[in-house]
Amino acid sequence: MAEAKTKKTARKSFFEIKVPLTSVKAHVYGNSVADIEGKIIKIDLTRSLKGKCFELRLKVKNVNGNLEGEPISLWLVGSFIRRAMRTGIDYVEDSFETELKDGKARVKPFLITRNKVSRAVRRELRNNAKKYITEYFKTRSAREIFSDLMTNKIQKEMFLKLKKIYPLTFCEIRVFEIINA
User: Fold this and answer.
1) For residue 63, what are the contacts with CB-CB under 8 A and spacing of at least 6?
2) If you placed Cys at 73, which of 94, 120, 156, 177 could pair as Cys (CB 3.0 to 4.6 Å)?
3) Tell me: the pLDDT tens digits for 151-174?
């Protein structure tokens, strides 16, 4: 009879969740490991990424008795983008789904040009960004892409390719989320 505790009488405590992509350890308050498993948590990576305001969403999974966070999505916080916006510039954004080595993902790149540009230049930037991202993502798994986004590898390579079309001040992937694994 002592084992059949209700949620009101069950003792809550903190459970540590390991995030393999970062050195951050999250703590979640709950009744048991089974109660916490499957929950979605958010981690702000601003301090660990030197001011770049990424928000990482994780789904908690039980791996051999240890709780681990499986990354679901990576968002660039809107205030970080608004800080980069100025008058006399244009921005280019897109949203599309692409294939990964181990699933499918939704990607939203965001580019800011140095000056006002024509619609043809914006279209060319958008198309080349989409082409680069789809080719890059086909050969990599979701975990590799999450780590490449956090280390700024993808954005830097994309910036070097796109600045040949028109100089950019800002080249980021605003949203990366796994659709199905």
Assistant:
1) none
2) 177
3) 889 999 999 999 999 999 999 999
67 and 128 co-located in one domain: no
Same domain (yes/no): 148, 97: yes
122: its two tokens: 């914006």
Which of 32, 56, 76 lies at the terminal end of a domain, its last residue? 76
- CA–CA dist 147, 162 (Å, integer): 22
Instruction: Report yes or no: 61 and 67 within 8 Å, Cβ to Cβ.
Output: yes
Rg (CA), the chain: 20
pLDDT tens digits for 34-68? 888 888 888 888 766 666 788 889 898 888 878 88
Decide if 40 is inside a domain: yes
CATH number at residue 145: 3.30.479.30
One domain for residues 69 and 95: no
CA 145 to chain centroid, in Å, comes to 9
Residue 12 has a pLDDT of 83
> By residue range, what is the domain housing residue 108?
85-180
Question: How far apart, in whole angstroms, are the C-alpha atoms of residue 94 and residue 34?
Answer: 39
Say which residues have a Cβ less than 8 Å from residue 138's Cβ, sequence separation at least 6: 98, 99, 100, 101
